[in-house]
Amino acid sequence: MIRAHGKLNLSLEVVGRRADGYYDLVSVVQEISLADALTFVPDSGLRLDATHPDLAGERNLALSAARLLALAGRQVAGASIHLDKQIPVAAGLGGGSSDAAATLVAANRLWRQGVPARRLLTMAAQLGSDVPFFLYGGTCLVEGRGERVLPLPTPACRWYALSNPGIAVPTGDIFGALRGPWTDGGRTRDVADAVSAEGRVTVGVNALQATLFALYPAAERCLADQSALAPGPTLVSGSGATVYSLCGSAAEAARIAAGMRENGYWADVAHSVASRGWENPCRPAP
Ligand code: C5P
Question: Is 225 among the catalytic positions?
Answer without folding.
Answer: no
